[in-house]
Amino acid sequence: xxxxxxxxxxxxxxxxxxxxxxxxxxxxxxxxxxxxxxxxxxxxxxxxxxxxxxxxxxxxxxxxxxxxxxxxxxxxxxxxxxxxxxxxxxxxxxxxxxxxxxxxxxxxxxxxxxxxxxxxxxxxxxxxxxxxxxxxxxxxxxxxxxxxxxxxxxxxxxxxxxxxxxxxxxxxxxxxxxxxxxxxxxxxxxxxxxxxxxxxxxxxxxxxxxxxxxxxxxxxxxxxxxxxxxxxxxxxxxxxxxxxxxxxxxxxxxxxxxxxxxxxxxxxxxxxxxxxxxxxxxxxxxxxxxxxxxxxxxxxxxxxxxxxxxxxxxxxxxxxxxxxxxxxxxxxxxxxxxxxxxxxxxxxxxxxxxxxxxxxxxxxxxxxxxxx
Length: 372
Fold this sequence. Notes:
CATH class of the largest domain: Alpha Beta
Distance between the termini: 63 Å
Largest sheet: 6 strands, mixed
CATH topology of the largest domain: Rossmann fold
Order of helices and strands: EHHEHEHEHEEEHEHHHHHHHEEHH
CATH superfamily of the largest domain: P-loop containing nucleotide triphosphate hydrolases
Radius of gyration: 24 Å
Number of strands: 10
Oligomer: single chain
CATH architecture of the largest domain: 3-Layer(aba) Sandwich
């Protein structure tokens, strides 16, 4: 049977600032059953696992997404009170909003282990069968980008989600036999950035679906302030707001910008991040006041200066900026459309009046009315 990518998540030790509320004698949640395979986060406190360090460990620590947190708390609390395995959970939304973190939190709140894989890794039904057969009762199975699962694995998952059973085919041709394999009750947490690509039968088998939304500046400021305390960086409140306002509503980008601003402050000043240091650092790293980077501005300039504001096809824009069409369409366009700088029409992409003004140009009279 083909090997399959598997990871068992071990909840990391709380940060020293939060250690006062941690009971060392309490059993560790999510501890792997194979001691030799378990990873102790205390042995890896370097820069490489900074993302794990910044992840909140419980629903109470999770910032933002209040509706999702409240709904998920009801689902998990109700299941724990009844002593049953919670319904399967589907988390959908753009990248960087905390879907993987939420899956880890679900396992932590339930006090169980988390097994992690991704849709592209499950190419055959046998890959999924190997992972499902290793689950213990109450485990949480997290499948990232679940919409990219191969169809044979997805069809096997239907029966596993509903009946906690799979049928393993042994042999080939007329002599092939089906062997039923009972599974321990588990909770599947699926994450997808394209919920529309999920098949109807798969989507209907999730008992709870949560749509992760972009963050506002206030919540992102809390994310930046919390992350700064964890990594030991001194930051002024107005500097945290400045970083948050340029983070495209995404915590992952906010944490990344904070680390780059920290580098600038350590090299060019005493390490303290004030407003001037934050603004100067973001200029160095090509992030403007709206969160647009070099590639975003290159797309706008190609659209406006090169083609008079459009309409222009995405392939033409990609050639103009030296990128693949998929990069322009999947990386740049979503934020530019959400920021109101590009409109997608049947004839191609069109720059709005806001895009002209952002580049310091006077918009044509025909689109100036879109501002009013």
